[in-house]
Specification:
Layout lengths: L1 E8 L7 H11 L3 E5 L10 H5 L5 E5 L7 E5 L3 E3 L13 E6 L4 E6 L13 H19 L5 E6 L23 H13 L2 E3 H5 L8 E2 L6 H4 L2 E2 L2 E6 L6 E6 L15 E6 L1
Parallel strand pairs: 1-2, 7-8
Antiparallel strand pairs: 1-14, 2-4, 3-4, 5-6, 6-7, 8-12, 9-12, 10-11, 13-14
Helix pairs in contact: 3-4
The structure holds one DNA strand.
Length: about 260
Amino acid sequence: MAFTLVTWNINSVRLRAGLVEKLLTEEAPDVLCLQECKSPVELMPAEAFAALGYTHFVARGQKGYNGVAIISRLPMRDAGHIDWCAKGDARHVAGELENGVVIHNMYVPAGGDVADREVNEKFGHKLDFVAEMRDRFRESLPEKSILVGDLNIAPREDDVWSHKKLLKVVSHTPIEVEAYHEAQEAGKWVDITRQDIPEGQLYSWWSYRAKDWDGADKGRRLDHIWASGDIAAAGHSSRILRAARGWEKPSDHAPVFARFDL
DNA sequence: ATGGTTGGTCTCCAA
């Protein structure tokens, strides 16, 4: 069984349902994971996706914030979610394919503006969230699993436009990068994007605030596709659809792709 | 050093 998987922070699935349909039509992935849907589940436009053949849909939502959804044209069952940091946030949903592979769709807290948990509780929440990921993966080693989503951390020097200028900027601080690696190593997760594209600058997000996002190209790689060690060799053909950042009324994130032969 | 843009909801908060 082979399938193409995409992760995309959509920044409102209701406002950008048309862009999701464009991606499904033009790129025809088998499974699409969305974050920041900003909608209760019952108001997510699942029918529009079903009309394109994507008849399987699992999601967790809430009004205005967070929200994650998995849209699939392959049979998929709801495999639950974890209430990270016990806040009741809709930041995780899992779907299981017929081959037993579980896809975890995650939205890690952005962490606010100040990289100091003493003065910014949102940064503390982010660190606690990623530490909980580490602890849970230590408790139970993931198998036959894929973890995707907006992890809001750019771990490598070539995952940001300027390593030096971003060392104190939330998303690329050493404490976050350390936490990211601890979580990854605890689960023996393999970064499929970097397994496929080991060298060079790679971004999946460009700020709305840039005058010329494409020309300035001050991006960060915040969106990730990880696979558990037992199936990592099945991952290939990674790419980031940068063009989607230039679509009409775009999300500030671009879709990240990988293919799996399982 | 600062401000820059966008979305959702209800006047500002989150990103």
